Amino acid sequence: MKYAAISHFSHPKHNLKYDYTEKPFKCDGCNEVGIGSRYRCSNDPERCDFDLHAHCALPSASITHPFYKKCTFQFLARPPGNERRYCNACEKDVSGFVYHCRSCGFDLHPCCAMLPMVLDDGETKLFLYRKVSSSCHRCGRKGRSWSYRSSCKKYNLHVACVREMLVENWRELYKGQNEKSTERKSLALKNTLEHHHRKSSKGKVQKCCEIAGMAVQFVISAVLGDPTALIAGVVGSLISRG
Predict the structure, then answer these.
(1) Do residues 107 and 120 share a domain?
(2) What is the CATH number of the domain that holds 78?
(3) Do residue 145 and residue 222 come from a single domain?
(4) What is the pTM of this model?
């Protein structure tokens, strides 16, 4: 559900207004990157510079997840305890808003907790798995974080790897250093995919990279918490270029 304006406990002085941006922002709730839909301070955005993902702005008090059938995750404004904690979906640090299971100790970033179990554009389907036995097409490793896997089971992509790619690209964009870095690093990922399949025929490599481009586009959108984010499509198309 989308609201035009909300009040939020994390920013009590001013209301937050719904906004859409094609520029990256840092969510002041979970401290992760965002793009697209957000809730932004309505008083003086330039001075306050306060933003929240939609998932962080409108959280549920508690959730369940099909990967952890015995768990109930409670929404917390900060991770419990003093020890360093990480998200069980993407393996990245948890430093802000989090869904936490007190009985099992599991943690999920709000956007990770809401990752769709199936990504489907009508032609390509990707299914979310807690663990897969095949290697990731970006890092070449098995295991690690949650993964999206194609229905043919020949393509796997770690959620953690997409997170890393986003951080690499958006950090420079967020600081306004060099917008061309997105294209360079996205194409570098394409080269990684081609290297991973260097023993395959050229046609198979091209097809794999086309699937990779679509998959990354889907997963980027999901990880960012906004499947309508246009820049996700831009990155995906860059990766899939031959």
Answers:
(1) no
(2) 3.30.60
(3) yes
(4) 0.76
